[in-house]
TrEMBL record:
InterPro entries: AmpC-like, Beta-lactam-related, Beta-lactam/transpept-like. SUPFAM superfamilies: beta-lactamase/transpeptidase-like. This is Serine hydrolase domain-containing protein. It comes from Maribacter flavus. Pfam families: Beta-lactamase (PF00144). Its main location: membrane. The keyword Acetylation does not apply. It comes from the Bacteria.
Amino acid sequence: MKLEYLKKIMPFVIAILAMQSTYSQSLETQIDSVLTTVFKASEEPGAVFLVAKDGEPIYRKAFGQANIELDVKMNPENVFQIGSMTKQFTAMAIVMLEEQGKLNVNDAISNYIPDYPNGSNITIHHLLTHTSGIKDFTKMKTIMTIAKIDQTPKELVDFFKDEPVDFKPGKQFSYNNSGYVVLGYIIEIVSDKTYEDFIEQNIFEKLGMNNSRYASDRKIVKHRAYGYHNKGAFTNKMQVSLSIPYASGSLMSTVDDMLKWQEAINTNSLITEVSKKKVYTDYTLNNGEQINYGYGWHLKDIDGISTREHGGSIFGFKSMGVYVPGLDIYVVGFSNCDCHSPTKATRDIASIVINANLKN
C-alpha cells in the first residue's frame, strides 16, 4: 500500500523539486546579471552580496579582489568597513538602554551633556531621526584638521557643538552624522562602557557576530577586505582616525554576520516587539510632515512593498542593506571601493526577489 502511494506521489515530488531548482537558477542568473554589470573586472576591487529568504541564504557570492596589490580574490567571508550602517547598531543600543531604564528617547540631551548648547531643546529622539538641526561635522571645512588625529568622544563632540545650528529641533529632516556621534557619547555616559565595548559585549558577542568589530587599520583583522579609491587609477584608501566616524560609521562586519543581525531583530533577541515598533515608525516633523526615517533605518518601498533600508559610505568602502519585512527578504552588499556603490544593485536585487516571490 505504501509503495503504491509513493509511486503515485513521486511525479508530484519530482515536479516540485524541479520547479524549486528552476526558481533558484532563474534568480541566480538574474542576480548575477545585475552584479556583473557593476563589478565587471576580476582584477579590480569588488564586492560581496548575500540574499536571504526566511532567514536562509539563497544567494551568496564574491566578486573582484579583496587586495589588488597582493592579487587576493574576494570571498564571501571578507570583512568590510560598513560606514553608516553602523547607525543601526547605535540606534539599537539606545533603545536597549531605554528598556533597561537608563534613559528615555524623549530626554533632553542636556540631561547627559549639561554644557551642550541648546541641549535642553534637543532630545535623543531628534538625534536618532536626524531632526536635531545641529551641524553635521563631516560637512565642516575644518574637518581635515582633526581627520587623522585620534579624538575622545568628548573631544569630537566639542569639535562641532558650538557651531551655529541649521534649524530648530524637529523642523526639518537633514541626515546628520553629528547626531549619532552624540548618541555614541551618551551610550558611554549611561552605560559606563566605551561605545566599542558596549556594542561588542551586548550585540556582537550575544548574537555570535564573531567577525564584526569596531574598525581598526592597525590591528590584525582576519579576512579583511582592503579599501580603495579610483580617481583615474586605483589607490589605497585615505587613512583617517577611526575615532572620527565613531558611532556614526566605524563598525566592520561580514554579510553573514549582518544576516545574524537581521534575524536577531526579527526574533526580538535584543529588544521587545513594542520597542521594535518604535524603531520602525515613520516619524514626523513639528508640522506633521512624514520623514520616512525611524531610528537608524530609512523606511521606504520597492515596487510598492515596504522596506527598511540603510547604506554606508566611508573612505574606501560602500555598503547597503535592504530588508523586506512583509516577505522576509534580506539583501546586503559590501564594496571595497568607494567608486562602486552597491545601493542601486541591492535595491534592484530586492526587486527581483520580491517579484519572484509574489509570482509563486
